[in-house]
Amino acid sequence: MKVLLALGLIPLAVCAQDVQKVLQRDFQPRGQATMDRVVQDGVQRVCTESNDRPPAELAKQLEADQLKSIPFPQGSLMGDWKNGERIAQNGRGGQWTDAPGAAGGGSCYNCHQLSPQEASFGTLGPSLLRFGATRGNSPDMQRYVYGKIYNAKAYNLCSQMPRLGYSGTLTPEQIKDLVALLLDPSSPVNK
Amino acid sequence: MKRFLAGCLLAVALPLAAQDTRKEIQKYQQMIADGSPVELFELEGETLWKKPQGPSNVSLEKCDLGLGPGVLKGAYARLPRYFKDADRVMDLETRLLHCMTTLQRRSREDATKRVFGNENQPSEMEYLSAYVSAQSRGMKMAAGNSHAKEKEAFELGKAMFFHRAGGWDMSCASCHGEEGKRIRMQDLPVLSKPEFARPIVATWPAYRVSNSQFKTMQWRINDCYRQMRYPEPKFASDATIALTTYLAVTAAGEPYRGPGTKR
After folding, report:
1. Residue ranges of the domains in chain A?
2. Interface with A, mutate which of B14, B16, B168, B186 (most A CBs under 10 A)
3. Class for domain A81-190, per CATH?
């Protein structure tokens, strides 16, 4: 908060701390959706207080912290695109209606176009059609896509894309399968 | 009949390309608008409104929704609003609950046992909200926005709308913040802008064709928070009323056209 004021950002009429107190009072835990989820972390706080336009210096610093949170696996990051397609289709995971411990999905089609066969895709995020065909699939590109899915905020602090690995929604194996869906030349995304 | 409607929608929608699907859904909504089951919900709601219940064995006919005991015409269009007897801003569902616990002297536990129904068994709250809201048809939406507590609710609701938290770092604006966006095939109205909020707020509560259920605004907010990976908002809590106040005040001026029929 002090940082924000120092940078000349105007706080909202009701500040984030007040809202958090209201959420703690007026929400209840249900299933796996526990109350710790309404406690904002630094990224959520800064993005709320800056209306998703964080000061550049602060954003850079926090993105670097987020990048450090990503445990990149050793070896190849390319899994099986066929599994990846199923994970991209699946919109479950982390909700109070989902079975705790059951494998979650990535909800990718909720927000992105991926395989051309799937006509029911959302537009909150950019189209990823032909992603690997245009961007290549070098080890650096694999690392970027793995990292982006694990923690989207490491590359764009106030991204509307969830931190799917960091939040525990997806496992490292699942993320590798999604990397393949985006980058494998035989994936329908790149046909 | 409910089964038939849902099955029919899927059968037309699936084989078509994205754009066509949307058009088909619109056409389909038009088609069923005449035969929409909303009227059945209004009728059942009237029966429940007039049915003596609770320890005092009285009906809700003396319930004051803001325009005086038993006055239904135009009452919904003025909600949420501040109620002096409860010293609180209340939306429709909260006020109905208030009347159940005061007039009928039912326990809060009893009255909130089943606030959201399902396809086979809608809830009392859903029936009642259909009956009450229908009697504001054609009236301009004008939620309370002058009392200090009404203004406070609006400001809290607005801050909540843009507040990012939960398992997926989301605020309402994550999905309802930019024009022309979709989740899968579902259009996402920018609810912070009057021109988009107006037609939405003026058609809730609503019958949802996709799951053959009649739904209240309390449910809508609850279900969006589920998708946002938050814990669950408590029914009729100040937080939910604040959000509804923010949406309703933003949507002020639109003639009420509900209960609506939705995707």
Report:
1. 2-62, 81-190
2. B168
3. mainly alpha
